[in-house]
Design brief:
The chain is α/β, with parallel strands linked by helices. Helix content is about 45%, strand content about 20%. The chain has a five-stranded parallel β-sheet with strand order 2-7-1-8-9, with helices on both faces. A four-stranded mixed β-sheet has the order 4-3-6-5. The radius of gyration is 19 Å and the shape is globular. The two termini are about 35 Å apart. About 30% of the residues are buried. The structure holds adenosine-5'-diphosphate and guanosine-5'-monophosphate. Guanosine-5'-monophosphate binds next to strand 5, strand 6 and helix 4.
Length: about 210
């Protein structure tokens, strides 16, 4: 087992805020540092998406079998479809010392935080609602009715932002990626994440203590 255990990170944000784009950049820049969990979903693949790459695309029956087999860390419904995080990959990557990122919506985020209070929760927002609408429309992957459902869901999600640890504005993409990386890496220095190191240094210092 790796001595340095990875941090579990949840990245949420309105659909179209740029989460997927940020994750791609982060993994490209720091492939040895991060592992991105691949979720299971019952929604259909978008053009260019492949099974096992962006998602594991499952039927509703297959998804429900995963729930019953206790194979998911969390799952939720989002705009008429199921989405969930397979457990085994996340555990395995954390043990190997990778910082594991779950790009999931808010209900799942809160379930993960409840089960694992050490989870770092980041929320990504575009600079404005108008920019969000433009990005969702500009992506060109959903028809208008789905875009409207996602914008309406964004309003609901905006009510839960206070449950997150950090808010990051995705305006300039490079700056946003640098900020996300900085927040995660600073998190490694938190005293509560360094008990083993502190105990080791205490034990080493003991021989200098003057008889007390
Ligand atoms: P999400 O994964 O949050 O749904 P995407 O990563 O698919 O969002 O991004 C939505 C759209 O916005 C895509 O077309 C993407 O290229 C674009 N985009 C992402 N980040 C930025 C940015 N900083 N500035 C302008 N456009 C962006
Ligand atoms: P999309 O269909 O745009 O890929 O994703 C829709 C929403 O589902 C996004 O907010 C995304 O973060 C979320 N999502 C993706 N995978 C999961 C998952 O495994 N669990 C949960 N709870 N949400 C997910």
């Amino acid at each position: 087992m790796n001595e340095k255990k990875g941090i579990l990170i949840v990245v949420s944000g309105f659909s179209g805020s740029g989460k997927g784009t940020i994750m791609n950049q982060l993994l490209k820049k720091y492939p040895d540092t991060y592992a991105l969990s691949i979720s299971a979903t019952t929604r259909s693949p978008r053009p260019g998406e492949a099974h096992g790459k962006e998602y594991f695309f499952l039927s509703e029956k297959e998804f429900k079998d995963m729930i019953e087999g206790n194979a998911l860390l969390e799952y939720a419904q989002y705009v008429n479809h199921y989405y969930g995080t397979p457990k085994s990959y996340v555990q395995q990557q954390l043990e190997q010392g990778k910082d594991v990122i779950l790009e999931i919506e808010i209900q799942g985020a809160l379930k993960v935080k409840k089960a694992n209070p050490d989870t770092l929760l980041l929320f990504i927002t575009p600079p404005s609602a108008e920019e969000l609408k433009q990005r969702l429309t500009g992506r060109g992957t959903e028809e208008e009715s789905v875009i409207n459902s996602r914008l309406s869901r964004a309003w609901q999600e905006a009510q839960g932002v206070e449950d997150y640890d950090y808010l990051v504005v995705n305006d300039d993409l490079d700056k946003c990626v640098a900020k996300v990386h900085g927040i995660i890496q600073n998190e490694h220095a938190r005293v509560t994440r360094n008990h083993i190191l502190i105990e080791k240094i205490r034990a080493e210092l003991k021989c200098f203590a003057k008889g007390e």
